[in-house]
Amino acid sequence: MSAVDFVAGCLGGCAGLIVGHPFDTIKVHMQTQDPKNPKYRGAFHCLKSLMAKESFRGLYRGMSSPMVGVSAINAIVFGVYGNVQRVSSNPDSYMSHFLAGSVAGFAQSIICSPMELAKTQLQLQTHKLGAAKFNGPTQCLSYVYQCEGVRGMFRGLGCTAARDVPGFASYFVSYEFLMRLKNEPGILYTLFAGGTAGAFSWMFTIPIDVVKSRLQADGMSGERKMYDGMVDCFRKSYQTEGSAFLTRGLSSTLLRAFPMNAVCFLVVSETLKYWQNHNTHSTKTTVKQTKQINAAHDHWDWEHKRRIMQGFLHFGAAFSDAICTSEIMEVAHDWYDNNKIYFSNNQISFNTNYEKYLES
User: I need a surface site. Which of 47, 76, 119, 356 has the fewest CB within 10 A?
Assistant: First the structure.
């Protein structure tokens, strides 16, 4: 089943990304704008501004980066989660789902960090520079590597892990809790449970996500860096904006999280369900074919025994015709022509009429 978890996660992640990326673009613009001179009054105003300036292209800017990595990221998340949860001592307990989600979040953060670095800089480059500097994520990461080395490519890794470990733990536990409330959850309820689980997990991780976005946007395209690290970014942001910065971009994040995770969980659920049904059908077909083979073998065995008996009776009839009396000949013909012999459980039995014939 492990391979199916990876495939299901890949398909679900791609579907969720297509739905949720425009909201992610709005979130990044809201989180990284100048707090002293904000460009957008809110998420809806940011959406209107991006649409007016760049149309849908602006909303989907930077999607190639997460799309390239989303297969690996979501395959790791759902693959690691499914396997860790199943090998635990009590797979159905909430603690197993919590631990499996935590391990999955930590594992995927290693791949997710450079992908989100490229995505963030691609989303912001036109906004900050007035003209696009990078044509795609590969060029962006190559530029970062030339300037800062491997360490620069993994800028924000600590924040990403600190966000994803509790985020995915609450993500899977809340989804499991909601799904257990229904005996037979349908498509609409699965969408609701997945969307709610996604929104719920982001409510606790949005502060660290703000810090991550600012660290990854810091020093963009050779600009002077403002932060020395995660703690310094948190301290300076709090001094400048107060506690309000902790929830910056929350509305756009929740708007993105619900449809994105609703579609993601639905695709994952339906993929796993399809595989289970297909596997069950294949098993049933195999059983049916096995029964047919056994029946054919039994039929061949019966035919083989019947032919031997017929040959024996033919031989007995011919022998009696040569050396025996006419009474013995009649008995042989009765055995063969009137089917007085029956087989049951590999043993020979005689019918009642023939037994009476012998008695007479």
Answer: 356
